Amino acid sequence: MRDQQAAGLQVAVHGHPNADTLLLWHPAVASDPEAVSALASRIATRSGLRVVVPTWTDGHDLLRSVRYARESAVHPPDQVSVVGYGAAGIAALSLAQHQRRLGIGLSRVTCVDGAAGLDDPISGRPLAEPGPAPVATEVDVVDTAGADWARATVEAWRAAGWAASLVPADQFTWRVSPSQ
Protein backbone atom coordinates (compact mmCIF):
# COMPACT_ATOMS: atom_id res chain seq x y z
CA MET A 1 0.00 0.00 0.00
CA ARG A 2 1.13 3.51 -0.66
CA ASP A 3 -0.54 6.73 0.36
CA GLN A 4 -0.58 9.57 -2.07
CA GLN A 5 -1.93 13.05 -2.31
CA ALA A 6 -4.27 13.71 -5.22
CA ALA A 7 -5.14 17.40 -5.59
CA GLY A 8 -5.65 17.75 -1.84
CA LEU A 9 -7.26 14.33 -1.50
CA GLN A 10 -5.56 11.60 0.52
CA VAL A 11 -5.67 8.22 -1.24
CA ALA A 12 -4.29 4.81 -0.42
CA VAL A 13 -3.40 2.47 -3.27
CA HIS A 14 -3.28 -1.30 -2.81
CA GLY A 15 -2.15 -3.91 -5.30
CA HIS A 16 0.04 -3.89 -8.38
CA PRO A 17 0.17 -0.57 -10.26
CA ASN A 18 -0.37 -2.33 -13.62
CA ALA A 19 -3.56 -4.12 -12.55
CA ASP A 20 -7.09 -3.03 -13.46
CA THR A 21 -8.34 -0.28 -11.14
CA LEU A 22 -11.14 -0.52 -8.60
CA LEU A 23 -12.16 2.67 -6.82
CA LEU A 24 -13.43 1.80 -3.33
CA TRP A 25 -15.75 4.32 -1.65
CA HIS A 26 -16.31 3.19 1.92
CA PRO A 27 -17.72 5.53 4.60
CA ALA A 28 -15.69 3.81 7.33
CA VAL A 29 -12.48 5.19 5.81
CA ALA A 30 -12.89 8.19 8.14
CA SER A 31 -13.81 6.28 11.31
CA ASP A 32 -11.85 3.02 10.86
CA PRO A 33 -9.17 3.52 8.20
CA GLU A 34 -7.24 0.41 9.27
CA ALA A 35 -10.24 -1.85 8.66
CA VAL A 36 -10.90 -0.30 5.24
CA SER A 37 -7.21 -0.64 4.41
CA ALA A 38 -7.33 -4.33 5.37
CA LEU A 39 -10.42 -4.76 3.16
CA ALA A 40 -8.70 -3.04 0.23
CA SER A 41 -5.63 -5.25 0.68
CA ARG A 42 -7.82 -8.38 0.69
CA ILE A 43 -9.58 -7.25 -2.48
CA ALA A 44 -6.28 -6.44 -4.20
CA THR A 45 -4.72 -9.76 -3.19
CA ARG A 46 -7.67 -12.01 -3.97
CA SER A 47 -8.89 -10.26 -7.11
CA GLY A 48 -5.61 -9.11 -8.62
CA LEU A 49 -6.85 -5.53 -8.77
CA ARG A 50 -5.30 -2.16 -8.02
CA VAL A 51 -7.58 -0.73 -5.33
CA VAL A 52 -7.72 3.03 -4.84
CA VAL A 53 -9.22 4.14 -1.52
CA PRO A 54 -9.82 7.86 -1.03
CA THR A 55 -10.33 9.45 2.35
CA TRP A 56 -13.49 11.34 1.46
CA THR A 57 -15.97 13.53 3.27
CA ASP A 58 -18.28 14.74 0.51
CA GLY A 59 -19.33 14.37 -3.10
CA HIS A 60 -16.58 16.70 -4.30
CA ASP A 61 -13.99 14.31 -2.84
CA LEU A 62 -15.70 11.38 -4.58
CA LEU A 63 -15.46 13.11 -7.94
CA ARG A 64 -11.82 14.02 -7.35
CA SER A 65 -11.11 10.38 -6.54
CA VAL A 66 -12.62 9.34 -9.89
CA ARG A 67 -10.27 11.74 -11.64
CA TYR A 68 -7.30 10.39 -9.69
CA ALA A 69 -8.20 6.73 -10.35
CA ARG A 70 -8.61 7.40 -14.08
CA GLU A 71 -5.46 9.51 -14.48
CA SER A 72 -3.24 7.14 -12.50
CA ALA A 73 -4.44 3.94 -14.21
CA VAL A 74 -2.13 2.30 -16.75
CA HIS A 75 -5.05 0.68 -18.60
CA PRO A 76 -7.67 2.66 -20.53
CA PRO A 77 -9.31 5.06 -18.06
CA ASP A 78 -12.81 3.96 -19.05
CA GLN A 79 -12.09 0.53 -17.56
CA VAL A 80 -12.24 1.77 -13.94
CA SER A 81 -14.76 0.06 -11.66
CA VAL A 82 -16.38 1.72 -8.62
CA VAL A 83 -17.69 0.03 -5.47
CA GLY A 84 -19.59 2.24 -3.06
CA TYR A 85 -21.12 1.46 0.34
CA GLY A 86 -24.22 3.18 1.72
CA ALA A 87 -24.71 6.67 0.28
CA ALA A 88 -21.47 6.20 -1.69
CA GLY A 89 -23.16 3.21 -3.35
CA ILE A 90 -25.94 5.54 -4.44
CA ALA A 91 -23.23 7.89 -5.73
CA ALA A 92 -21.69 5.01 -7.72
CA LEU A 93 -25.06 4.34 -9.39
CA SER A 94 -25.51 8.04 -10.11
CA LEU A 95 -22.01 8.20 -11.56
CA ALA A 96 -22.93 5.39 -13.96
CA GLN A 97 -26.06 7.28 -15.02
CA HIS A 98 -24.16 10.51 -15.67
CA GLN A 99 -20.82 9.16 -16.90
CA ARG A 100 -21.10 10.43 -20.48
CA ARG A 101 -22.19 13.90 -19.32
CA LEU A 102 -19.12 13.88 -17.05
CA GLY A 103 -16.88 12.77 -19.92
CA ILE A 104 -15.93 9.45 -18.36
CA GLY A 105 -16.65 5.78 -18.86
CA LEU A 106 -16.91 3.03 -16.28
CA SER A 107 -16.55 -0.72 -16.58
CA ARG A 108 -18.69 -1.64 -13.57
CA VAL A 109 -20.36 -0.04 -10.59
CA THR A 110 -21.45 -1.82 -7.44
CA CYS A 111 -23.82 -0.49 -4.80
CA VAL A 112 -23.50 -2.11 -1.37
CA ASP A 113 -25.85 -1.24 1.51
CA GLY A 114 -27.92 1.09 -0.65
CA ALA A 115 -31.43 1.86 0.51
CA ALA A 116 -34.42 4.07 -0.14
CA GLY A 117 -33.96 7.47 1.42
CA LEU A 118 -30.20 7.69 0.85
CA ASP A 119 -29.22 10.70 -1.22
CA ASP A 120 -26.38 10.79 -3.71
CA PRO A 121 -23.58 12.69 -1.92
CA ILE A 122 -22.38 14.09 -5.26
CA SER A 123 -25.63 15.80 -6.25
CA GLY A 124 -27.28 15.93 -2.82
CA ARG A 125 -30.44 14.45 -4.34
CA PRO A 126 -32.13 11.06 -4.40
CA LEU A 127 -31.05 8.67 -7.13
CA ALA A 128 -32.93 9.36 -10.36
CA GLU A 129 -34.63 6.62 -12.34
CA PRO A 130 -32.08 5.18 -14.78
CA GLY A 131 -32.29 6.22 -18.40
CA PRO A 132 -31.06 4.16 -21.33
CA ALA A 133 -27.52 2.83 -20.93
CA PRO A 134 -25.14 5.20 -22.77
CA VAL A 135 -22.33 2.63 -22.67
CA ALA A 136 -21.80 -0.99 -21.68
CA THR A 137 -21.35 -0.53 -17.93
CA GLU A 138 -22.27 -3.42 -15.65
CA VAL A 139 -24.30 -2.56 -12.57
CA ASP A 140 -24.39 -4.68 -9.42
CA VAL A 141 -26.62 -4.08 -6.41
CA VAL A 142 -25.90 -6.18 -3.34
CA ASP A 143 -29.08 -7.52 -1.75
CA THR A 144 -28.56 -6.48 1.89
CA ALA A 145 -30.89 -5.01 4.50
CA GLY A 146 -32.97 -3.14 1.91
CA ALA A 147 -33.78 -6.31 -0.07
CA ASP A 148 -36.98 -4.89 -1.61
CA TRP A 149 -35.14 -1.73 -2.61
CA ALA A 150 -32.26 -3.73 -4.11
CA ARG A 151 -34.59 -5.92 -6.20
CA ALA A 152 -36.64 -2.95 -7.42
CA THR A 153 -33.48 -1.02 -8.26
CA VAL A 154 -32.04 -3.86 -10.34
CA GLU A 155 -35.37 -4.31 -12.13
CA ALA A 156 -35.48 -0.58 -12.99
CA TRP A 157 -31.92 -0.64 -14.35
CA ARG A 158 -32.63 -3.76 -16.42
CA ALA A 159 -35.83 -2.21 -17.79
CA ALA A 160 -33.76 0.79 -18.93
CA GLY A 161 -31.39 -1.52 -20.83
CA TRP A 162 -28.50 -1.78 -18.39
CA ALA A 163 -26.66 -5.03 -17.61
CA ALA A 164 -27.76 -5.11 -13.97
CA SER A 165 -27.36 -7.92 -11.45
CA LEU A 166 -28.68 -8.56 -7.98
CA VAL A 167 -25.88 -10.01 -5.86
CA PRO A 168 -27.05 -12.12 -2.89
CA ALA A 169 -25.65 -10.78 0.39
CA ASP A 170 -24.18 -14.16 1.32
CA GLN A 171 -22.15 -14.18 -1.91
CA PHE A 172 -20.69 -10.72 -1.34
CA THR A 173 -17.49 -11.00 0.70
CA TRP A 174 -16.05 -7.50 0.43
CA ARG A 175 -16.94 -6.48 3.98
CA VAL A 176 -14.84 -4.65 6.54
CA SER A 177 -15.65 -7.41 9.02
CA PRO A 178 -17.28 -10.80 8.48
CA SER A 179 -20.17 -9.79 10.78
CA GLN A 180 -21.41 -7.13 8.34
From TrEMBL:
<protein>
    <recommendedName>
        <fullName>Alpha/beta hydrolase family protein</fullName>
    </recommendedName>
</protein>
<dbReference type="InterPro" id="IPR029058">
    <property type="entry name" value="AB_hydrolase_fold"/>
</dbReference>
